[in-house]
Amino acid sequence: MSTNMFVNLPVRNLGKAIAFFTKLGFKFNDEFTDEKATCMIVAENIFVMLLVKEFFQTFISKEIADAKYSTEVIITLSASSRESVDEMVRRAVQAGATTPNGKQDDGWMYGHGFQDLDGHLWAFMCIDESVLRQTD
């Protein structure tokens, strides 16, 4: 049995969050979607549960951090090319995201990211293994 990964994120407005991530090309599992939550499919075994803040709070006893003012995690996904990194960030910005940081280009690794509508940080990176092997 393979391991699945579920990242749970609180959102202020589920409909707006779904519309935002749909513009980025993500799909959702209708079986795990209602007025309180949705399951965004990132990859075969990777999912992001977008939960309205009130519902998210039922799973924790601590206060929910406001991602617009503090950072607890950066969700980083691999990309197949530099162009796909740039395209994902471009689409995110068109959908309402911001880019609090510039591109990172280390030669062997290229990345860029955005802050979503709720302030969560997302990064996309491409590793050029041919260049990486040359540095060994």
TrEMBL record:
PROSITE patterns: VOC
Signal peptide: none
SUPFAM superfamilies the record matches: Glyoxalase/Bleomycin resistance protein/Dihydroxybiphenyl dioxygenase (SSF54593)
Residues of the VOC domain: 2-127
Bilayer-spanning residue ranges: none
Pfam families the UniProt entry points to: Ble-like_N (PF22677)
UniProt-listed InterPro entries: Glyas_Bleomycin-R_OHBP_Dase, Glyoxy/Ble-like_N, VOC_core
Protein name: VOC domain-containing protein
Organism of derivation: Pedobacter steynii
